[in-house]
């Protein structure tokens, strides 16, 4: 990773020989912060993600996230504009310069509509779902899986083009487990890196002799689709109440009935059900999902919202 960085008294930084001015903080997570910066050279806004690295393992994971970004140049995967690592005493910070998407995340859009007693129209749902699926296909075609797909990890451009972000949990699509020790290692990793209410069932209790593949993402995609349709993920409330998500995901998901009858087509609900199958060997691959979406997407994507 590059190391071209300068922090000046006026909040100006230089990354890969380009200068950026700090504007404001955008948010923070457990081990990272996101700032809004403006490019001095082009006047555009960017999101600067700063990942705190407490040890070499943290640094290795940050480098991995950068490497995952570099694998893709796809309209539905957030691109990396620049990066560097700086030393701070015995620790490091990895800085990832990313495009700034003012509209925010898919979750922000769903939550905003829900607060207005509205929901995404089927046309919009299909348009967004198709874009996410195209991004996932690009990831799967390279032999990787995202492993942490959720509405807060999808940004929406003004034209509803979705951008998959947060690639730090990505790893090889196919994981062959041959021992109980390896199974526990995979399970522990999933508990740390895969959001519980969007985590595939096979990652909760990993068998000692099994193969886990990219269809963990299909389960998560189903949860994202459910969220777009019904305003929350199928297991969000279970998690919020403190009940066992691990037990809940082993049972068949019942499509919510509080929504007005006929709000969504039977075909879309059938597509949703095909993703939320507990046995991952019975889940479709992303190519099958895309083929089904193409039969449902109207010639012109609508942008309306539907009132509940």
UniProtKB/TrEMBL annotation:
Broadest EC class assigned to this enzyme: transferase
Native organism: Pelobates cultripes (Western spadefoot toad)
Highest taxon in the source lineage: Eukaryota
Keyword ATP-binding (UniProt): yes
An example Gene Ontology molecular-function term: ATP binding
Lineage of source species: Eukaryota, Metazoa, Chordata, Craniata, Vertebrata
Protein name per its UniProtKB record: non-specific serine/threonine protein kinase
Coiled-coil stretches: none
Enzyme Commission number(s) from the entry: 2.7.11.1
Catalytic activities: L-seryl-[protein] + ATP = O-phospho-L-seryl-[protein] + ADP + H(+); L-threonyl-[protein] + ATP = O-phospho-L-threonyl-[protein] + ADP + H(+)
GO cellular component: Golgi apparatus
Alphabetical keyword list: ATP-binding, Kinase, Nucleotide-binding, Serine/threonine-protein kinase, Transferase
Residues of the Protein kinase domain: 20-297
